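Dear colleagues,

As part of the handover before I leave the project, I'm documenting each prediction I ran so the next person doesn't have to rerun anything. This entry is a single chain, and its sequence is reproduced below.
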Amino acid sequence: MSRRGNCYDNAPMESFWGSLKNERVHHCRYATWAEAEASIRKYIEIFYNRQRRHSRLGYLAPAVFVQNFNILAAAA
């Protein structure tokens, strides 16, 4: 991974960091590092993983996508 000239290796993480910065970090002012860390953890655990719809997953939230996948895998 991350070989020189292979631009697709880091694309998912770059997309995540861009979303995090645009949707959370740049719109908030934090008084302490602890406040910033708590806000970012809340964004990732509650919003990004459970509510935010991702185009790559057919506009489903990751938690819903995994739940649907597990149901289909159990039925097979």
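Residues 11-75 form one domain. The chain has one domain: 11-75.

All the best with the project,
I.
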